[in-house]
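Components:
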Amino acid sequence: MYEELKYWYLRDHKLFRTLSYSQIKQLCIITGFKKASKGEIIYFSSSDVPRIFLLKKGNIKIVAIDDNGNETIKDIIQKGDLFGELTLETDNKVEEYAKVLSDDVAICSFLMSDFEDLLLRNPTLALSYTKFVGLKMKRIKNSYANLISKDAKTRLYQFLKDWAEQEGVQNGNTVVIENYLTQNDIAQIICTSRQTATQLLNEMETNNLLQYNRKEITITDITQL
Amino acid sequence: MYEELKYWYLRDHKLFRTLSYSQIKQLCIITGFKKASKGEIIYFSSSDVPRIFLLKKGNIKIVAIDDNGNETIKDIIQKGDLFGELTLETDNKVEEYAKVLSDDVAICSFLMSDFEDLLLRNPTLALSYTKFVGLKMKRIKNSYANLISKDAKTRLYQFLKDWAEQEGVQNGNTVVIENYLTQNDIAQIICTSRQTATQLLNEMETNNLLQYNRKEITITDITQL
DNA sequence: AGCAAAATGTCAGCTAATTTACACTTCGAT
DNA sequence: ATCGAAGTGTAAATTAGCTGACATTTTGCT
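Structure:
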């Protein structure tokens, strides 16, 4: 069980440990570098040639618009994460874009075709990349399994635990998370209504499980969640 | 096992199409072969060394047991599909097994380590495999997205459409699917209760959208779903 | 052929969570 | 410093779908 969680929390920087500096440089030289600040929207799926992106700094959310014009959060991308067409399949019928959550972000990107060439020339990297995608898949599977079989409260607890593990600053059993999400964002991530999320968060606050404000979330005792 | 036989087992998988006959023969990676019949349970995750499996014939479901002893269907595997630890990550704490759904199945397997060696020696194959895993991930994402944002009826409709597309025999707008699933199986796949699934199927039958029986499902007009 | 087990059909509560609706608070821009 | 927009708080009405509790039908087995 704990082993599983460890896997799950192993964020994706892992891939780049297998890449040498020169390899990374090679990728980044080929491409551009982009900075953006809070609230900005970055379109990346429909645009020109297929690319793979690497978030160097900050946080963004990947948002999709469905047929009815509803926004749904597909993913939260953190510093060091790759995003874009990781499956190496060009398929641009989905309308997705990224929205900047933190004060500012830095994104570097490279061409998918270049990346494919690199993989062909470097089987070890291809293998690592496959494992990396597999890890991502495992993560997605886990989070969806949670969404489907658990109630809203359990989902919120699980989300907070994940978040704390990934980004929280721990001090004893107390964990402080920099809160760049609105309650609405959180609600969307755990797939519930904004109102339900608000209620649950307030309930947790009255039960002294955490303190919530727009800047940060302090989890009183992470072992209690 | 004879070389020719091994070749036959791999030949028509899209993954290995990039390889020539002689290359495939050289692989010699198939180390296991197994036949089983309806209802049989095949354990594959916990056992000895990590393997990757290829289903040559029939249908199976991958079932997991959670902490409370509840069965959940993780995947339906059809003829030609690979299954097992496709992510190449050994991770053996999940209690999973396969149950044979069709009258009989033929499964061949190879060692994950052999497969990794193979990928390292064949960059093109490694890239194909990476895309293959990516495609699988995309599918999973899509089906989960459906599960979460749609109601039970829509989920059932979507499931039937997918199933029809994958395995149905079309004649005009009428599609006949060989039905190797119970209503309970269907319910589990679309994540609802057996009763709800039954009700929905009967409702569809009275609305002349389909005819259901244990052997086959006939969708009157696939464009109506 | 006979019987137990599995699969299917049906229905009445029950409940979590969505929806609707509105008030209050905080933030950011001018 | 003000004002509109975004974010948060709260509550009643409504509902999809689960649970439990059966009856009925079909299947596989000896």
